[in-house]
Amino acid sequence: MLPARNKKDRNWTIRVGLASCGMAAGGRKVYDTFSTKLRDKGLDVELKQTGCMGMCYNEVLIEVSSPEGGHVFYGHVTPEQVEGIVEGHLIGGKPVTEWVIPADEIDNLLAKQKRIVLRNCGVVDPESIDDYLDAGGYQAIEKVLDSMSSDEVIDEVAKSGLRGRGGAGFPTGVKWSFTRKSLGSQKYIICNADEGDPGAFMDRSVLESDPHSVIEGILIAGYAIGASEGYIYVRAEYPLAIQRLEIALAQARERGFIGENILGYNFDFDMSIRQGAGAFVCGEETALMMSLEGRRGMPRFRPPFPAQSGLWGKPTNINNVETLANVPWIILHGADAYNNCGAEKSKGTKVFALAGKVARGGLIEVPMGITLREIVFDVGGGTSSGLEFKAVQIGGPSGGIIPASLADTPVDYESVTETGAIMGSGGLIVMDESACMVDVAKFFLNFTQAESCGKCTFCRIGTLRMLEVLDRIAKGEGKEGDIELLEELAEGVKRASLCGLGQTAPNPVLTTLRYFRDEYETHIYEKKCPAKKCQALITYEIIPEKCPGCGLCAKYCPVDAVSGRRKEPYFIDPEKCIHCGLCMSVCRLGAVSVH
Amino acid sequence: MAKVWFTLDGKRVEVEAGTTILEASQQNGARIPTLCHDPRLKPTAACRLCLVEMEGARGPMPACATPVAEGMVVRTVTDDLIESHRMALELLLSDHYGDCVAPCKLACPAGIDIQGYIGLIANGQHQEAVKLIRESNPLPLVCGRVCPRFCETKCRRNLVDEPVAINALKRFVADYEMSNGGSYVPEVKPATGHRVAIVGGGPAGLSAAYYLALEGHEVTIFESNPQLGGMMRYGIPEYRLPKAILDKEIAIIANLCHEVRCNTSLGGDLSIENLEEEGYEAIFLALGAQANQKMRVEGEDLPGVLSGIGFLRDVALGEGVSLGQKVVVIGGGNTAIDAARTALRLGAEEITVVYRRSRNEMPANDEEIEQAEQEGIQFHFLAAPVKLIAQNGRVDSMECIKMALGELDSSGRRRPEPIAGSEFNMEVDTVIAAIGQTLDASCLAQNGQVGLNRRGYISISEETMETSLEGLFAGGDCTSGPATVVEAIATGQRAAISINQYLSGQQITPPEKPYNCTKGELDEIDPKDYADVQRIPRTETLALAPEVRKRNFAEIELGFTDDMAKAEARRCLACGCQDAFECKLRELATEYKVNDTHYAGRKRHLRIRENEHPYILRDPNKCILCGCCVRICNEVQGIGALGFTNRGFDTMVEPALGMPLWETACDSCGQCISTCPTGALTAKIQLPKPGPWKLKAVPTICPYCGIGCNIDLNIIGDKIVKVNSPVDSPVNSGNLCRKGAFNPCSIHNLRRLKTPLIRRNSDLVEASWEEAITFAGEGLKQIKERSGSDGLAVLSSPQLTNEENYLVQKVARAALGTNNIGCLATPVVNESLLKSFGRNASTCSYGDILTSDLILVFGCDIPEDYPIIALKVREAVAKGSKLITLNPRATKMDSLAKVTLKVNRRTSVDLVKKMLAYIISYDLIDHDFVSSRTTGFQDFAEEMRRHSLEEIANAPWIKPSRIIEAIHLYIRARKPVILVNADTVTPAELALISDLALITGNVERDGAGIIALRTYGNAQGLIDMGVSPDCLPGQQPITDVATRQKLEANWGRPVPPGKGRDSVGVIQGVDRGEIQGILVVGSDAIGEIGNAIFEVPIFSVLIDTVFPENPPYPDVILPGANFTESEGTYTNCERRVQRLHRAIFPPAGKQNWEIVSALATSLGYPMHYPTASSIYDEIAELVPPYKVAMGNESTEIGTQWPFPKSGRFNFEDGLAWLKQPEFKSSEILEGLGSLSQWLYK
After folding, report:
1. Which of B51, B84, B91 to mutate to test the interface with A (most CBs of A within 10 A)?
2. Whether the predicted pLDDT of A293 surpasses 90
């Protein structure tokens, strides 16, 4: 699946995907089993760990490549299958077809993708600097130090059209030039790896799979703006990313890519990791800097912008992981190669964490300008449930909902913003007909309310008041005027909040109201949840014709609301029922219905 | 500063570059609301109220954090912004849990500040309490007796035990005032010439008359009855409201009126047209509701059938009423009960009240019913008369029918319905029908235009009391139907406001209703909130026993004693917010007329932190998270005791780990209180009850160190409640330390001298002022005659004002003829600055600290001793100034320092000498300065060169590199400022520090110099005033003939020419018997010097404020005044002369300068100063810089008197003296702190 290699595998090679996605599925055990088996059999096979290959829905995922250059992927590999693969494929020379992921599936998945940021993900061993070097790593920094002035670097990046991938899409070259122009001998560069959107894992995957490309990006940025120190601000919930970053930093330092007189040039740069405690708002740059300084992460008003007065009052440039990972590629391949791909105002590619009710969830990188439909159907393979595609949620809690009717919206900063959502950092959640939009809005607002830093009035109290209205709508206690109240609050919070968190917190509410107002109205006036999601508004019933009286539902019911005699239709007592839905999920005959 | 211009609401405005939009609009009169802005703090833009619209900006911008940029176009008032402000406020208030105002006040129809007056009673300020009551109710004697107490049912104390006896307390203070010499009447405003007619002299009319008369209008009351009072006189029986009491209260109001015309009735003697013709511009109708409602039963008009109100009126008029034995009263209201009890007192044997509903529905006060029962009145419930039957032409029996209660009626009570066939008969002698009153509108008949409402009362606008006719207002029962006295008063008061507006040509608008946040009704409150309140039973008033009272008209209720009242007042829970009068949130909420239920939802309900700090009370329920406290503690104080915790809606401000504030690094400076815009942080008031009250702010100067911070003493009556500071103060910018913020409030706890005391036969006995002053004067005169002037001495205090110090030395020199003038507290005045520069004063100002690039602190724990200076140093360091400290001990400031050198008394002289040697040896001196401005360099340099350079390496305990670093930092600095504690460093140290500044040219240059910090409030003033054995006022040497002559000419007495004794000398003289008489003037002088000097049998006079704890005592003690009680001026350490204002009266009635003047007069040297400022005028004449320093009377904040920038030092040749101090380094002056320590160690 991967782009051309610099180095052809000389031998049989097995790569086991060992990013968090692989690990969580039991990849480590598969890896160990391979290791044992290969040793036992005395096979000359190179066993490598690698990062996320993107097809997270298939984990544990392994890639077997033959000396001839063929690649075969096995999905959902269990330790028990290892023996079979070794025997059948490595020794027998024939892929074990029943376990192999069909080539057309991979082709479909890859057809519309373009991998710049993810160029090394799933290819190199993230714990090996040599792998990275073999893949062309650290050539960009060398090129920069050797032949480019700071201004040339900035020009190149500006020309590439790269925009900040943290969400707001501010042109990176412009940002760099601000910091470059700021007066001050001490400047900082910060890599923002405080990925906090629910459902987003792009930064984590990149750090886990290809930490060196981020380090190299930071070095180039540091050189460009005249900084001598860098910090990578990672949330502590990403232990694997931190571990691999630490290894990578140690290796880079050992090889002279970090430190004084890097590669013998007149450039000193030091870099270290700072762990954040996982507050969502610390993804906001001013709050992030407060946190870095050891204070409570709370945003402050800009100006002054970090470029003028940032970390410890010094000029500071903050870029997100994905932005920085793009940089070495741009330097090596040139701005034009980059801006060739993408949309009018949004160049290059965008990495998405594709999740939700999608058949092929995982880490994808697509050229800007691709439509949502292409992402959901061509790359993602449509909904996983088979139910109708309803909407995508893009941009995390700051983003919004784009309905299926707008599926042809091209994915670029401007078009997405037009729908009321935002591009965000790359969380893309696919929803099918079973999603209740009130519930979705409630979920995201609940998140932002809990994560508000509490500093400004609108965000701290306004979001709670909105949440309370949503809560009562979901409980069937909504009343006339609630939608207007929601809108009034949402507009107020959006307009008057201090930082991006508050300014965008109402987006999920506003977009669901915009596209699914009828759903709200049904909740309020008919006291019904069309998606049958809101517990207070639904009732479970057993359809007597379908019920054989097996009693399974009664067995599972946690509150003994289901009763009946064996072999006769059972009955749910609506007074006792707590709407948990267990009966429905255990009934294999579909005899439980919900209204 | 560079200027920029921008457009503010369509106006072109020019401001200094760097000004924020908020500051710019404040400077230009546009008011932008804000809650999180404090000029002392960096902007945070948290409250989101100050948003403005800026052309070209993506969204609204916070004005507090956005600096003005050239050409920017800003709008501060648009519909969107107003909507946004409203929303921000409503959101904040949707999470605000507390009572702005106590529920009792809200329940009171007249809106009396109940919590306020109860607090004053608890604090013993009874007169202030009545004053406060009269602001809303001019009839406290009456209301204190007859009010139905709507307040008490709302009292939050109901959740603990029983409500506070609010009304009894009101009666107590009203009685207290009456029995203590009459009634307080506020100042009447100048006469307006407008004439107002009040028709009806009942409570509504009297109340309107009172408030209108105070406004200066000419008020005439017309009353149809022979006397004023209305129902209070003719409806309420004597045993509840004695006429004598009523007369007193009415007299106060009648006296304010132009005229009272009794026996004049509307409809009869006058009409509205007449009044208008007579020239009354406004008329207030308060006619009452005095017509009886009919029973509508047969026989109603028979003789022996009386109306309740008619009956009571006849009794009040003293007309004989014959009742017979059996009296039946019909009705269930207060009039019925009053009639029944009055009948009892008139001798009727059997009295029955017949009421058609049951006891529960009776509208009469419970207490009244109970008392009636106790007195033996019978009640017959659920019965109604059907027919009255006569015999012999007089009622003889009454046929009644039994009733049953049915459905609820419109009044919310169950409707009584007759039970058919249940008729029964009652034998009666007299029937009194008291079933209600109404307005007799017949008197208005000829004034046809006066509109009536559906119920037959005069129709008015409820809020303004206007009738349908212009200039005609109405209130009281004639508009509402029968109601209570307090309700009538409220209408009168409201009418007065409207009439006043009408007369002064304004539009009549209802008074602005202040926003009130409330915790809700009693049943909405969690009783657990009050679980910790101590249960104390309600104090019951004294009352006559039923047997004693029931056959006479003596007043039943006897009220409270003083102790009972104070005890009861202390039961008050003080529900209303401490910040009610200052809360910015409430102010804005009122302005924007917010609806705090618009966004109602979950509210944080947190524990109030009452006992976690001795001075600070935290109520997190009122916190709006503006972060001002967090920022001031962190940014300004550098402490960081408070911070934010939690996230989202549950974010709160609290100390780390939720610790009690007292256990954190908190400095108790109270800065957080001063910056808190709401009642979330308030000062714990050092009085039994905290108020809140509308306080009077008296600007004065903090005496607790020499910095001279501007403070406002917030007082009510004779109590200092709290202290704050003006943010525009040039000295302290509104910042205060613990001493300034809290010490003045505990001044009431001191054991004060209240009467003069003189020694008679070895006992101190109380004496009159005259006696005591004559005694003191004679005593001192005798000694002068016996042992000459040299046998006399005077000690004065650096806590006294300039005027007082001046007078004390004047008494010494001119009246006693001695230069034996010593200083308390700092016995040896450090004169090194005088010797080096010719002036004993700082050479630069506090402002120079902020602009300095280097600050050298020498021998001074700034954060501990001069906290406000520490703030300035911290601010300067934050701006980039470097700090060097040379101190014996670590201070809280060391962490900010670039270099910290630990020195002690034994090493510091050595160290500075070595530094000087280094500078001279390496030729780092400022040659220009040294050659043109100083003298003595050659000798000095030679002396210093004797220290070899190697010695620097031998400097004790300090690495040479650190010393050299410090030297170079100081030399390289362009504007270095040295801070030194002039009261604790030795003269040698100070001399060498002066030399250091001189040879580097760092004196008398813009922004560079030495600031001599001093421990006591007026230490600098004391020096300037000539409290010195060898310096005259203005620091002129005693040897200076010209100055002496000038003084002699002014004083009319010779000035002794020889150097006298300083404190040390005086005390030695006392010990040796050379001093025979002494005058000590101080503010807690004993605390400063101890009372050992009184051990020696000499004649001693002490003017002081606090009673000496232990013997020996002086021969005469004259009770003086402290700084809160004195007028005058202080001179601070940067030589800013600032005015003290008297906040409260001295307990013995005299200020110190008055006492000293009187004493001088009795010494045969008459002094007659009319005011303290006349003394200042004399000082200004003799010490010209003081003329400049104060400017004129209206200058509240004195200007700083700079060290002369004339290019000349204050010597004849104009050159500063460079010299090696006379002290050897080993000679250490210990114990400069306290004189007694120095001598009696």
Report:
1. B91
2. yes
| Backbone conformation region of residue B382, classed left if phi is above 0, alpha if psi is from -120 to 50, else beta | left
Rounded CA-CA distance A140/A333 in Å is: 9
Which residue ranges in chain B fall short of pLDDT 70?
Answer: 1, 445-448, 827, 948-957, 1089, 1190-1207, 1222-1241
Give the tens place of pLDDT for each residue, A537-594. 888 888 888 888 888 888 888 998 888 888 888 889 888 888 888 888 888 888 888 8
ipTM of the assembly?
Answer: 0.91
Tens-place pLDDT, residues B736-768: 999 999 999 988 888 888 999 999 888 889 999
The CA distances from residue B55 to A491, B686, B733, B751, in Å, are 20, 51, 34, 64
| Radius of gyration from C-alpha coordinates of chain B | 38
Chain A residues touching B94 at Cβ < 8 A: 461, 465
Q: Which of B80, B647, B649 sits opposite A279 (nearest CB)?
A: B647
Pair A421, A400: CB distance under 8 Å:
yes
Contact between chains at A455 and B601 (C-beta distance less than 8 A): no
Give me the phi and psi of B1213, to 5 degrees please: -85, -5
Contact yes or no for B643 and A497 at CB 8 A: no
Q: For A326-374, how does the pLDDT look when each residue is reduced to its tens digit (9 = 90+)?
A: 999 999 999 999 999 988 889 999 999 999 999 999 999 999 999 999 9
> Are A300 and B643 an interchain contact pair (Cβ–Cβ within 8 Å)?
no
Structural domains in chain A, CATH included, are 12-110 (3.40.30.10), 129-338 (3.40.50.11540), 349-432 (3.10.20.600), 437-526 (1.20.1440.230), 539-594 (3.30.70.20)
Q: How many DSSP H helices and E strands does chain A contain?
A: 24, 17
Residue B875: burial class (beta carbons within 10 Å; 0-12, 13-18, 19+): middle
A449, A465, A496 member nearest B84 (Cβ):
A496
Per-residue tokens: A567:
């072999």
| Chain pair A-B, CB pairs under 8 angstroms | 106
Q: Could you give the strand order of the β-sheet that contains B378-380, starting from the edge strand earlier in sequence?
A: B305-307, B430-433, B326-330, B350-354, B378-380
**A495–B59 C-beta distance less than 8 A:** yes
Q: Please state whether B797 falls in left (phi above 0), alpha (psi between -120 and 50) or beta.
A: beta
A568 min Cα distance to partner chain B (Å): 48
Task: Name residues whose C-beta falls within 8 Å of residue A469's C-beta, 6 or more positions apart in sequence.
Answer: A478, A482, A485, A486, A489
Which residues contact residue A92 at a Cβ distance below 8 angstroms, ignoring those fewer than 6 apart? none
Which chain A residue is nearest to residue B89, measuring alpha carbons? A457
Q: Is A462 on the interface with B (CB under 8 A)?
A: yes
Residue A121 phi, psi (nearest 5): -70, 130
Pairing of strands B681-683, B652-654: unpaired
Looking at residue B591, its pLDDT comes to 94
Q: pTM of the prediction? A: 0.91
Of A455, A464, A495, the CB nearest to B84: A495
Phi and psi at residue B208, to the nearest 5°: -65, -40
Q: Is the Cβ–Cβ distance between B781 and B806 less than 8 Å?
A: no
Q: Which two tokens stand for residue B910?
A: 């050595």
Residue in chain B closest to A488 (alpha carbons) equals: B87
B647 and A454: CB-CB below 8 Å? yes
Phi and psi at residue B680, in whole multiples of 5°? Answer: -70, -30
